[in-house]
Prior knowledge:
By secondary structure, the chain is mainly α. It contains 5 helices and 2 strands, in the order H-H-E-E-H-H-H.
Amino acid sequence: MTSGPVARWTVVALSFAGLAVATYLSVEHVTGGIPVCGVSSGCDEVTTSQYAVIMGMPVAFIGVAGYATLLLGTLAYLGLDNPSNGLTYALLGIAFIGEGFTIYFVYTQAFRLHAICEYCMASAVIMTSILVVTIYASVKTRYERPIVLD
Length: 150
């Protein structure tokens, strides 16, 4: 197995982890619960703030959708004999969009709310890792494909 598929399987594992975090935060939001924080005490401030919902949609739901899309898209990529460049670029685009959300939410926690949610930060680390690995896999795959002359 070359490093391209290893990187893609890494994205699958990271997407599962992100999906677990986002699902936990979604369940807490729906049930009105507060995530149990360990070291910090900012989870309640962050998850109940005005920034926890965008246009009526809880941010955690957006995370579930994003991680599920990355997971399913990457599994589809791995299941294809010759995945298209379009799928590669779509996964890369989704990872960049996820990172955009991540940057915004980390900024909001740090500079607007002055509170940090451990689960939100775990999600931020996961999404940043997904972006880095997806960039690597995309570049690596591009140079591992054989050149076919018709």
